[in-house]
Amino acid sequence: MIARFLLPGLLLLALLSFSPAAPFTPPATLTLRINGLPIATDTLGSRLFVGADRTLRLNVVRANDPDGEGLTILIDRFPLAPGTYAFQEILSGHNRDASYRYGEVAAYSKSCPDNPGVVKITAVDTIHHVLTGSYHCQVCESGRGARRFTMTGAFSFPYEEE
Q1: Which candidate, 46, 4, 15, 49, places its Cα nearest to that of 29?
Q2: Which residues form the signal peptide (predicted)?
Q3: pTM
Q4: Domain boundaries along the sequence of the chain
Q5: Which backbone phi and psi does 59 adopt, to 5 degrees?
């Protein structure tokens, strides 16, 4: 007789304590190295955009300059698929370049006589809107100084559609 009341009570308790699972949100990771030195990034201010015209724009913001521009990489004709997208293709009509701003420093890939740069996309998750990959580029200061910066990093980061 007790079992007759116990079983429905346990089922009711289980149903009342059930809550739907929160939607899966992959962790956002984004790294930046400048000339080999790790730089902390601001994952809240950094952005990864995929445009309706199939343009990829990666904006990596430094943690110590959350309102700054940081590093911006632009890749056009991006098919939202894994692959390697090289900066040398600027000469072939593609618009692929990188720029970096931090304080008084302004540097661009097009300012370098040799501007090797590449974005490698290793995974595309269109359900959760996450791109995974890495980047490597060189940018050169314009004007006096003409310092060269090698920027490298990796990401597994949500993208926004523009």
Answers
A1: 46
A2: 1-21
A3: 0.80
A4: 28-161
A5: -120, 110
